[in-house]
Amino acid sequence: MSHLMNTYARLPVAFSHGEGSWVTDVDGKIYLDALSGIAVSTLGHNHPDLVAAISAQAGRLLHTSNLYRMPQQEQLADKLAALSGMQEVFFCNSGCEANEAAIKLARFYGHQRGIDNPHIVVMDKSFHGRTLATLSATGNRKVQAGFEPLVSGFIRVPFNDLNAIRSLVEHQSGIVAVMLEAVQGEGGLHPADVEYLRGVRALCDQQGWLLICDEVQCGMGRTGTWFGFQQAGIVPDVATLAKGLGGGVPVGACLAAGKAAGLFGPGNHGSTFGGNQLAMAAALTTLHVVERDNLLGNAVEIGDLIRRGMTEALSGVKGFVEVRGQGLMIGIELDRPCAELVAQGLAEGLLINVTADKVVRLLPPLTFSAEEASELVLRLSGLIKAFLKG
Ligand SMILES: *Cc1c(COP(=O)(O)O)cnc(C)c1O
Questions:
Q1: Total domains in the fold of the chain
Q2: What DSSP letter does each residue of 168-191 carry, written as one string?
Q3: How far from the centroid of its chain's Cα atoms is residue 222's Cα?
Q4: Which of 209, 233, 256 is nearest to 86 (CA)?
Q5: C-alpha 99 – ligand 1 centre gap (Å)
Q6: Domain boundary among 292, 310, 335
Q7: Is 23 among the domain residues?
């Protein structure tokens, strides 16, 4: 019997090594990776620049703690500020931690304005993590069930519905922030409408609320812009990053701007590991390579190829609903639950995911090539057609 806590229904495969968009299992079978370990392996596997940077950093220093200055943190914060148009960054180790920082920041902001019982507006079908506060913010009962009492202070509304938020203005006091994903990932690959995001931004400005964008999945170039919110040309007050930021090394970040900047002082928040030298080397190098190799452009181009290819291959097929998404964050919705496609993909040498029961989710490395895109379309469309027939 395994001594692992049974928190994941793991697939019966273990990988030994990877190269680019391909991974090899312990028996030598090779798979095309269209998932990147859930949007983490931004540069694919065994990227020479990332391996060199991590190795070199490991030979100098791994960690000193935040009791001391770390020039690499300052460099990465400068870089993230320049890319986002935001001002300050707190480093942590994961997405839920980045969101915890954002939630604390919003409550702190409220208290500073004399709001003793601050509330954050959150969305149906959202996903923000598995810690108590972030699962309470998450719009999925399955994530919450069994862990009550939930953390209070969240008000839930339908996603992509500006009037639902507007109607709170008169009926709910104590709102301090609106928290959303520019593209909902776990919830089934639902992009926010551009007009909706602009409307939420304007409403937050008007009401003095913070706009918090959870960019843990849709950030780091995945949609073809550095941040998902940039698809709408807006800048939030708070944004969170993790998954793809370190290209596989755990690192998270909470960014603040405008009225959310300058709020925390020493003692208000912290993390032992957060932003250590190893994580900073990995993130700095990941950002550098994304920029140098124009991987944002690649995400747009290859994402279009995959969406077009899948749409062409599946149009007219009974049971196929639609292909959607932005850049290399792609969802293919079917009319029925299709979780077994994951194991079928594995058998065919393809790593994919299914979320929200009926949506095949693709999150390939941003280095994915046109040839790999064709291969993906070929294998996946074959699988889906066979599944829908069967
Ligand atoms: C994955 C994810 C999280 C949680 O990140 P962890 O690193 O697993 O804690 C939060 N928000 C979004 C949008 C995510 O996709």
A1: 2
A2: HHHH---EEEEEE-SEETTTTSEE
A3: 9
A4: 256
A5: 8
A6: 292
A7: yes
Å from CA of 140 to ligand 1 middle: 13
**Residue from 243, 244, 381 nearest 317 by CA:** 381
In this predicted model, what pLDDT tens digit does every residue of 188-197 receive, in sequence order? 999 999 999 9
Q: What value does the CA radius of gyration of the chain take, rounded to a whole number of Å?
A: 21
Query: By the 8 A CB rule, do 297 and 306 touch?
Result: no
What is the CA angle 304-310-314, rounded to 5? 150
| Start-to-end CA span in the chain (Å) | 35
Q: Enter the tokens of residue 386.
A: 């066979």
Q: Which residues line ligand 1 (CB under 6 A)?
A: 94-96, 99, 127-129, 181, 185-186, 214, 216-217, 242-243
Structural domain of 179 = 51-292
174 falls in which pLDDT band (50, 70, 90)? very high
Among residues 248, 265, 292, the one where a domain terminates is 292
**Which atom belonging to ligand 1 lies closest to the Cα atom of 129?**
4
- Going from the C-alpha of 5 to that of each of 8, 94, 316, the distances in angstroms are 8, 20, 44
Please report the atom of ligand 1 found closest to the CA of residue 243.
7
- pLDDT tens-digit readout, 224-260: 999 999 999 999 999 999 999 999 999 999 999 999 9
Consult the annotation and say whether 216 binds a ligand: yes
C-alpha 45 to ligand 1 mean position (Å)? 21
